[in-house]
Amino acid sequence: QWYQRRVSITAGGKDDVDRLIETVDDFIYGIDSKVVELDDDTFRKEMPKFDTALVEFIAPWCPHCKRLTPNFEMAAKVVHKNDIPVTFVKVNCDGPGYHTCHDANADIYPTLKLFRAGVDERRYYGERTPKDLVRYVLNMLGDHAKVIGNQADLDKFTVSDGEYMFVGAFESDSSLKTEFLKIAEQQREFNRFAIVTNPELLKKVGETNAVVAYQPEFLRNKWEPHYKVFKGESFDLMNFVKLAKIDLVGIINKQSVPIFEVARPLLITTFDVDFEVNRKHTNYVRNRLLKLASEYKDKVSFCMGDLNMTHWYAPDDRYNDTGVLMTVISKEGWEYTVPKDLPFNYENAKKVVEDIISGKIEAKPFQSEEPPVQKKRVQRVVAKTFHDIVLSEDKHTLIEFFSPYCGHCKALIPIYNELA
Known about the structure:
This protein has 420 residues and is of the alpha/beta class. 35% of the residues lie in helices and 17% in strands.
């Protein structure tokens, strides 16, 4: 029922999830929590009682867990207040839930997983705001591909609040239809899927035995079509679903990062990307990138993201006075030298792109701290020395990637030193 009731964005710019969030206007973290806490003694016994449950596996000392927990509790309260049949559960992996976390392969903190009647179904990799968590559990309820039978429902479905929409248009059973339904089940947490088989409605769609990908309404623009059509072989459909979400100017998030890894050279703009709170500035930057991308799309890829998602490529937070940092990554994964104080505008961005294409700007390994003096058998590697020490030596290398705050990493240090 919840899945069927979802509607399109209204004239006021609010979607169903926004309206659900607004029903909890008295949220205070830590007061009247709707999150069920389980441990090694209770997890196996209680979980089968919940038809659908979203479980966070956390460690109290973990900074990422501390940031997630208030959002998780807020989402739990929204779900509870609106009678959405999903239970939010918490397990302390560094305490009474240690063995439960081990059994669930919760090897990084926090780990979020969806359970059905006590059975571990899938791990959640999406964003962790209350809105994203609520949207996720709604997506996981009901049919994975909504059956659309009339024009009004199709019009509503193809306007979304931030998700890409995929419509399967099939006049009869086929291998492509079977694959589409399979992918809809696998990818329902990231995208919305629907299926059309009505002959009259297929004429309106304009395609048969095809999959049509629709761009979210707030991303539509005059420089690119707002839909893409796939009529190929079924084995290539998953690749289409992934690549269809990369627009002329893509947005870096957890799902798109692997795709941008191969879309190089890549111009990244880092700033406060937010189509709700910071809508005017976000569209200002995006519109100029769209114009530029329409001219150079065959030679350079373009994307934008906030520092949370681009810090691997743009570690320097010294933004210029327009609040935008431009970074360009070469095919080899190196960085083209772009002045950090270069103001962002169409003319400057165009000059950067033309200089890269013409070879006037040279790509170099990422800047990093100076390599330390090596006094121990465990050598400390920084960006400048990674290739020479790890990749180019004549001997094998065992390398530990760690985070300074991590308790498990600290416990490993004496063991690792002794091994060396």
